[in-house]
Amino acid sequence: MVRRMLASIALATLASTWLSAADHENPFKKAEKGQWVSYRLSIVAMKDEQIVQVTHRVTSVNDKSVTFETNSLVNGQKTPAQVNTIDLSKPYDRLSAANFGDAKDTKVEVKDSGKESLEIAGKKYDCEWARYAVSLGPAGKRTTADVKIWFCKDVPLHGLVKMDIASESLKIKMEIEKIGKD
Question: Who contacts 99 (Cβ-Cβ below 8 Å, separation ≥6)?
Fold first, then answer.
């Protein structure tokens, strides 16, 4: 339940970031085979913290699509890899690419946006950020969250540098750890 809520909030927010602005080109058009980006997530729900390491690695690129594999470690335990293919002829929709089902009950409201330089693990990222109010779930069971995300055009794949999500019962901090190419 918590994972689905987390995924829905994060992905709805990420999708709205790119889809709401027509001037954003599909970030995967710059992808190269072997590029990878890894993240560290801290998920705190009901005073219980889980640490998740996530790595996205481009496995195939052609003029029509990019395929990448996502590998995760949850509290040190490996989860099954997920493979996603991005159609480069379409706007990038993170929500449908993740296959988390119908998000018709998700509402995203932009609260603020700007530019900010972040230094993470000794590396500087010139970012655009946005803060959102996100509400999801059916009437009577709605969950609301404050979401702030930072993107940098120099980061491979989707460009995500950092994301903070806070709701009544859930706090998520996600930061880029490393980028590279095999």
Answer: none
pLDDT in tens, 46-74: 889 999 999 999 999 999 999 999 999 98
The third-level CATH classification (topology) of the domain covering 2-181 is YmcC-like fold (2.40.360)
pLDDT digits (tens, 9 = 90+) for 105-121: 777 788 999 999 999 98
Domain spans of the chain, in order of start: 2-181
Provide the whole-model pTM: 0.80
In this structure, are residues 135 and 142 in contact, taking their beta carbons and an 8 Å threshold? yes
